[in-house]
Amino acid sequence: MALTKVKKNEVVAEVAELLSASKMTVVTKYQGTTVKALQELRRSSRGSGTQLKVVKNRLVIKAIQQNDALKGVDTSALEGMLLYAFNAQDEVAPAQAIAKFAKLNPTLEFVGAISAEGKFLTADEVKSLATLPGKNELIGQVVAMLLSPVNDITNALSGNLHALLDGISDKATA
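Above: the chain sequence. Below: its structure as tokens.
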């Protein structure tokens, strides 16, 4: 069933809103993927705040042209049956969700990504992004690094205090 002009304008407006709110929009070929698999991908990616859309490429291109920050994006790679993954909270989450799901469904293939700054990333760059830890994981790693000296001192003090006192007295007599 063909979309009416009004419905197309609504779709363009919705995609334009998703693009402007999204920190990273990942573009993936999905040809050969079953509807059931796509529904499972949608469910699994919702947890990370990623929203998936299958939209005609020319409507996405119109939405990109409406966004001032994205007007310069190279849209030549937007061809074929494409799935668009939007995420307003985390740049890496859409790439990770698709990469994780692609391990079980090899019919999914990265085309690229559109960053919030208006840069089109290649498929290889998106694959590299997918291997990065998520935002919460990175924050946890930084906190752990900052706390490691404190933990080392605490562990040393909670150990054998007599050995610590013996070590201090040996230093004092030397």
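The mean pLDDT is 85.
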